[in-house]
Design brief:
Layout (H helix, E strand, L loop, with lengths): L34 E3 L2 E3 L2 H12 L30 H7 E4 L4 E6 L6 H7 L9 E7 L4 E6 L6 H10 L22 H26 L4 H22 L1 H12 L6 H20 L7 H25 L12 E6 L2 E6 L8 E4 L9 E5 L2 E4 L1 H4 L5 E3 L4 E2 L4 E2 L4 E5 L6
Antiparallel strand pairs: 1-2, 3-4, 4-6, 5-6, 7-8, 7-9, 9-15, 10-13, 10-15, 11-12, 11-14
Length: 405
């Protein structure tokens, strides 16, 4: 059975007959129970809704860019973003705000192709309250400027979630953000000095390579090379010297010991040869060694910062949880929860803090905590630990510890 519709899945080329019916939005194979809108077939109501929104707002070009499918919304649960109405939380997520506009930056892990970029940068067509949207594809970040009198922060996030780009907002986003550049400014000075000296020492040593220098000029060039090499060793290379010295004082041979030893050996041998007129030394090699070592450190630190290995629980926990009160259920920030509170944890939500199960059947996935993927069953009255993910129906538990504990 084949269906002719103007969508992304139609752009894939010929679909094998045994693949079944494909969703008009995300391109996934539809199950026996499908959702239809005219001739278009969808795998779920979410895909149908996004499809209709895009066509209603004249954004169907999204399905033609790069011939790539949209994002499936079949498994996406409808998020609750009531906690974004909390001024304290909103203030920590906002980059800039004045009387007219607000600017925010969101991490959108779902970004994967040019179609995503095109759709996100045309958000103003979906809601006139969005004034500008720019996407950084490499970082998977979106920079949004909106009129907070026409659309709230919560409504903006709900709009992104509606079209399949729910922002990844976690507890660490409430912390004070460190400067984007984690490399000390003095490091750039060290790298610049090493590069400048490396180039000039090579230039002054070039006649020596060809044997074209007069004896008198050769001596002066040697003295100038020593002058250029001094800041390379004792300024640009001081990190290696200091680290090696501290390691030796503790009786340890760290990785910087051979580097420092090589630097001092090259420098000492070169100074000896130049002062005794027995050779030109190896100061060009010394400057090149330090320069490339520093360049490697720069790339390493940049890569390390991008990967962000050093993340704690705040990078995984959500910002808010559902608190059960006499008046009903309300969303509150995690840092406002305290022992004795009763929270509701729904399917696939994280346990915010240690607590005792008071209602429901718990099947907790502790893979984030222990690495074991087999869910653990907990009966009412049993203890549940923070970081687990509920894989069954919603449960209620009374907290026994704070989130930070």
């Amino acid at each position: 059975m084949s269906i002719t519709v103007t969508n992304k899945s139609a752009s894939f080329g010929e679909v094998p007959p045994d693949d079944g019916i494909h969703c008009a939005h995300c391109g996934e194979v539809c199950a026996e129970e499908t959702v239809r809108a005219g001739e278009a077939v969808f795998c779920c109501e979410g895909c149908k809704m996004v499809y209709e929104i895009l066509h209603t707002n004249d954004l169907s070009q999204y399905y033609d860019i790069e011939k790539a499918p949209g994002i499936s919304l079949k498994a996406q649960k409808r998020e609750r973003y009531a906690w974004l109405d909390d001024p304290e939380i909103a203030a920590k997520l906002i980059d800039f705000q004045n009387e007219e506009v607000t600017r925010v930056t969101f991490l959108l892990p779902q970004i994967h192709c040019a179609s995503c970029i095109w759709l996100l940068e045309n958000l103003y067509k979906l809601n006139p309250g969005v004034l500008q949207s720019r996407v950084n594809f490499l970082k998977k970040e979106a920079y949004l400027t909106f009129d907070h009198q026409k659309i709230s922060l919560r409504q903006l996030v709900e709009l992104l979630a509606l079209i399949g780009y729910a922002p990844a907002i976690n507890l660490s986003d409430l912390d004070e953000k460190p400067p984007r550049d984690q490399i000390d400014r003095s490091f750039y000075y060290q790298l610049g000095v090493a590069g400048f000296a490396f180039g000039n020492i090579m230039l002054l040593s070039f006649p020596e390579y060809l044997g074209l220098t007069e004896v008198a000029f050769r001596q002066w060039f040697g003295y100038m090379n020593i002058a250029l090499a001094l800041p390379v060793v004792f300024f640009s290379g001081r990190h290696y010297l200091r680290s090696a010295w501290q390691g030796l004082r503790r009786g340890e041979l760290n990785i910087d010991v051979p580097v420092a030893l090589g630097m001092l050996t090259l420098f000492g041998r070169s100074v000896f040869e130049i002062l005794t007129h027995t050779g030109a030394g190896y100061l060009d090699s010394l400057a090149g060694l330090v320069f490339f070592l520093l360049a490697g450190r720069w790339f390493q630190q940049k890569t390390y910062y991008r990967l962000s290995f050093e993340r704690d629980y705040k990078s995984y926990f959500p910002i808010a949880a559902t608190l059960k009160t006499p008046e009903g259920e309300v969303s509150v920030a995690l840092n406002k929860l305290k022992p004795g509170d009763t929270v509701v944890v729904r399917h696939q939500e994280l346990i915010p803090a240690d607590g005792l199960l008071v209602k429901g059947k718990a099947r907790i996935d502790y893979s984030f905590v222990t690495g074991e993927s087999e869910p653990v069953r907990v009966a009412p009255g049993g203890k549940i630990f923070a970081g687990g993910r509920q894989t069954a129906d919603h449960i209620e538990l009374t907290l026994t510890k704070k989130v930070s504990q």
